[in-house]
Amino acid sequence: MRKNIVAGNWKMNKTLQEGIALAKELNEVLANEKPNCDVIICTPFIHLASVAGLVDAAKIGVGAENCADKESGAYTGEVSAAMVASTGAKYVILGHSERRAYYGETAEILKEKVKLALANGLTPIFCIGEVLEEREAGKQNEVVYSQLAGSLYDLSAEDFSKIILAYEPVWAIGTGKTATAEQAQEIHAYIRKTIEDRYGKEVAENTSILYGGSCKASNAKELFANPDVDGGLIGGASLKAADFKGIIDAFN
Ligand code: PGA
């Protein structure tokens, strides 16, 4: 069966020292706990090796927030999937709406990133989601379908099975405006149905689909109680150990 997952996305926050302190705190907070979900923290590149080296890998997985769409070579400033994997990180967020909007990441570029992540043994946490005008026009299903088909649906069933999806309505990210539990369930069920149409029921049932967008301890329980919401991708509320733990506890 699919896993329940709570994943943090630190975005461009925390110096190295602050990030190490947060990872240590989270590690301590979870030391005597048995979370009912997988816990992942995705950090800026420079934190990865330190954070992966200090957390209890049996309890906390570590991931990057991006990787390059090229294998290696003359791409100044880029970080490859192989480099990410060499830090001990096991995951990589790909297709976050901020990367699509501010760094011009297209479906084609993301397809390359997904391939390279998988080839290097990383689990992509692949983000999809509509902007406000698309939601208001009732186009959210069309949008997420084209994001899925455009970057993932050429994968073999075996490769697709390695992917974690995160539905993040752009209008809910960092805005304090969360999708309602009903809105989340409705589109998660639609996403799962499109996976079933493409890869069959077993793959669809085994795919974890996380919700992201102003998810916090106070609304996580209601969101995660939906049958097709398998956890969350958490931005702001992952920056304090107590807030993040409050979301992990939504699965207790
Ligand atoms: P947020 O961000 O929780 O701060 O809304 C979620 C995300 O962008 O992954």
Short structural summary:
This protein is an alpha/beta fold.
Structural class: alpha/beta
Give the spatial strand order of the biggest sheet. Answer: 1-2-3-4-5-6-7-8
How far apart lie the N and C ends? 18 Å
| Helix count from the secondary structure assignment | 12
The amount of beta strand, in percent, is 15-25%
Roughly how much helix do the residues carry, as a percent range? 40-55%
Global shape: globular
Q: Can you tell me the residue ranges where pLDDT is under 50 for at least 5 consecutive residues?
A: none
Number of strands: 8
Rg from Cα: 17 Å
- What's the pLDDT, averaged over the residues? 97
Bound molecules: 2-phosphoglycolic acid
3D architecture notes:
The protein has 252 residues and is of the alpha/beta class. It has 12 helices and 8 strands. The chain has helices at residues 16-31, 48-54, 81-86, 97-102, 107-119, 132-136, 140-151, 157-160, 181-199, 201-206, 217-224, 241-248, and strands at residues 5-9, 38-43, 60-64, 91-94, 123-128, 164-167, 209-212, 231-234. Strands 1-2-3-4-5-6-7-8 form an 8-stranded parallel barrel, surrounded by 7 helices. Helix 1 crosses helix 12 (241-248), helix 7 packs parallel to helix 9 (181-199) and helix 11 runs parallel beside helix 12 (241-248). The mean pLDDT is 97. 2-phosphoglycolic acid binds next to strand 8.
